Amino acid sequence: KNQVEQSPQSLIILEGKNCTLQCNYTVSPFSNLRWYKQDTGRGPVSLTIMTFSENTKSNGRYTATLDADTKQSSLHITASQLSDSASYICVVMRNTGFQKLVFGTGTRLLVSP
Amino acid sequence: GAVVSQHPSRVICKSGTSVKIECRSLDFQATTMFWYRQFPKQSLMLMATSNEGSKATYEQGVEKDKFLINHASLTLSTLTVTSAHPEDSSFYICSAREVGQSNTEAFFGQGTRLTVV
């Protein structure tokens, strides 16, 4: 079954600290993996997109990793800021005739002052 | 990055009325747009895929007569919730991909909070 699981479900960290969010997937055939940030009441905004051959990709303080062998990805946030408080969604695209996105349930991050 | 604009951002309507939500790609053309529904603390659930100039493809369990989709141009898709009921209250989000870029990222609208009273 094509699924994307994220952990933890929620996380509270102090401002300035680092954190790592996890994503495991069983989606097949795999096309690419994306991380999105979704602020409350807003649409998701793309952070990174990685294909099978990419192991790591950075976007400012966000660094995503991908291990296609173990079907795991992580999103590392460095020097967190209050504005990082949001839901982070891992999304995998299936490489079928029409590429479909499979969404994880997200990790809700709260950065506390 | 590309911009997808969704309107309105919030709408409150009475039970039994219909509500139209617009999704526009502002700086690119989108052959395909997608409509999602999101309940609190849950992830996005794909409702239907909107194809320019043809009928939308609905996911299993989504009533096509309830959620009317029209994709009349390469930059505009609309979702009409007909005869709305309180259980239709949700956060609706659209996304779009550029023409010929099916493998790249999808750009999401800012969402529409629908409340049916």
Short description:
Chain A is an all-beta fold. Chain A has no helices and 11 strands.
Strand-residue proportion of chain B:
over 45%
Proportion of helical residues of chain A: under 10%
The greatest interface between two protein chains, and residues involved on each side, is: A-B, 22 and 25 residues
- The average pLDDT score of chain B comes to 90
Element order of chain B: H for helix, E for strand: EEEEEEEEEEE
The biggest beta sheet of chain B reads: 7 strands, mixed
Strand count, sense and barrel status of the largest sheet of chain A are:
6 strands, mixed
Distance linking N and C termini of chain A = 40 Å
**Class by SSE composition of chain B:** mainly beta
Structural class of chain A: mainly beta
Oligomer: heterodimer
Order of helices and strands of chain A: EEEEEEEEEEE
Radius of gyration of chain A: 14 Å
What would you report as the Rg of chain B, rounded to the nearest angstrom? 13 Å
What are the low-pLDDT stretches of chain A, counting only 5+ consecutive residues below 50?
none
Number of helices of chain B: 0
- Beta-strand content bin of chain A: over 45%
